[in-house]
Amino acid sequence: MYLKPQPIRSKQVRDAARGERCTLQILGVCNHDDSTTVLSHLPDESHGMARKGDDISACFACHACHDVIDGRRDWPEGEAEHREWYMRRAQTRTLRRLIERGIANVKGVA
Q1: Residue 65 · residue 87 · CB < 8 Å
Q2: pTM for the whole thing?
Q3: C-alpha span between 76 and 47 (Å, rounded)
Q4: Assigned fold of 11-100
Q5: Cβ atoms within 10 Å of 9's Cβ, excluding its own
Q6: Residues in the chain with pLDDT < 70?
Q7: Cys bridge to 47: 23, 39, 53, 71, which one at CB 3.0-4.6 A?
Q8: CB-CB contact of 91 with 75 (8 Å)
Q9: Res 5: pLDDT
Q10: Are 56 and 66 in contact (CB under 8 A)?
Q11: Is residue 79 classed exposed, middle or buried when 0-12, 13-18 and 19+ CB atoms within 10 A define those classes?
């Protein structure tokens, strides 16, 4: 039997999105307005009905890109097939930025 793990939540990670560049940058969608950036949770095994994914399964997203990820806006023609690539790239970019800012830590990385 699989037990649901405790959700990973971090106020520092969520607050870190404020003023950051959108890491999703969906072609034809991104508004490139850093003032609208929030932490956008990406779909993964930690989310479910009425439950957001973990804060480590997230990225920095402008308002427009966040709307696409959350399904409030359709993917632009030709970009939906790259959905997983966009999310993986954004998650990696976000994690790198969190490490650069000292918000996330990876042992052995200076």
Answers
A1: no
A2: 0.88
A3: 25
A4: Erythroid Transcription Factor GATA-1; Chain A (3.30.50)
A5: 11
A6: 1-4, 45-51
A7: 53
A8: no
A9: 72
A10: no
A11: middle
Q: How does the average pLDDT of the chain come out, rounded?
A: 90
**HEC-encoded secondary structure of the chain:** CCCCCCCCCCHHHHHHCCCCCCCCCCCCCCCCCHHHCEEEECCCCCCECCECCCCCCEEEECHHHHHHHCCCCCCCCCCHHHHHHHHHHHHHHHHHHHHHCCCCCCCCCC
Q: Which two structure tokens, joined as six digits, stand for 96? A: 């790198």
Give the whole-angstrom CA distance, residue 91 versus residue 94: 5
Amino acid in position 27: L
Condensed to tens digits (0 to 9), the pLDDT of residues 4-22 reads 678 889 999 999 999 999 9
Distance, CA of 24 to CA of 51 (rounded, Å): 22
